[in-house]
Amino acid sequence: MRQHKIAISLTPQTPRRRIYCLGLLIALTMFCTMSQAQETPKTYFLDSLSQYEESYRLFLVKKWQAERQEYIITTRKKWWYYLPSLGWALRGPSISANTGILAEIDYNRTVTSTRLESLDARYQVDFQETIGRIRSEYQKILIKQQQLERERVALAKLRAIQAIHNEAFKSQTMSPEEHLQHSYQYETTINNFKSKEAELFISILEFQNLCRYHLPDKELVPLEQSDCVTETGRKGPQGWETVGYPKR
């Protein structure tokens, strides 16, 4: 923080008007310093763009692998589906093999391979589109931050002007109507700036949600191991009776 030092030399011969002006200057300096200390600028930091991209990539890889594994397991047939048929003829046991089984095996392999390739391509396109959106939203937030910094510099000057208006009103050199009008414009500008700060903070939260950034590390647990209310009349982990629908 920049420190302002004012050297004042007063003598018994110093005019009262000069003493009054020096006192007013000190009061204005202290007021501006206290106003800046009370209204500390809020800075919302962003991590590097590569961290947000990596966060989304890890999330999408887990989702992609889970869906891929689910499809492979649910469409895979056991080996005994392709065994020859066993039967009984007049002369004894018989075994019949159908050549259509070989065609079915080849068809299933082709379908599985094709759908997995389609799944991989779809996730790749989704990843590229979302990465492009992440980069665009990141630049938008940086532009908003820069704009707020410029407005914050202008607000510092506005506070000093408002302090002068307050002193003019106290010394009765400004009418109440004029002072009220200046105060209204000052408060309106401050509120608009705070609204823009809130909008920036919301934009950062939405951006982090888009990137799946800093997701909670909690995991799902079976219902019998959880403390959620599921049925009427059951005791929870703490011995509390759970609440459910009334019996008819």
Question: Your description of this structure?
Answer:
It is a single chain. Strands 1-2 form a two-stranded antiparallel sheet. With 248 residues, the chain is mainly alpha-helical. The longest helix is centred in the middle third of the chain and has 71 residues, at 100-170. The two termini are 71 Å apart. The model is unreliable at 1-10, 31-41 and 232-248 (pLDDT under 50). 63% of the residues lie in helices and 4% in strands.
How do the helices and strands line up, and which of them pair or pack?
Elements: H1 16-38, H2 49-75, E1 85-89, E2 92-96, H3 100-170, H4 176-210
Antiparallel strand pairs: 1-2
Helix pairs in contact: 1-3, 2-3, 3-4
Q: What percentage of residues falls in helices of 4 or more residues?
A: 55-70%
Helix and strand element order: HHEEHH
- Gyration radius, in Å: 37 Å
Count of individual helical segments: 4
Structural class category: mainly alpha
Strand arrangement, largest sheet?
1-2
Basic shape:
rod-shaped
- Low-confidence parts: 1-10, 31-41, 232-248
The major pleated sheet works out as: 2 strands, antiparallel
Number of strands: 2
Average of per-residue pLDDT values: 75
Fraction in beta strands: under 5%
In whole angstroms, how far apart are the ends?
Answer: 71 Å
In short:
63% of the residues lie in helices and 4% in strands.
Q: Which key features would you list for this structure?
A:
single chain; 248 residues; mainly alpha; two-stranded antiparallel sheet; 4 helices; rod-shaped; disordered C terminus; Outer membrane efflux protein
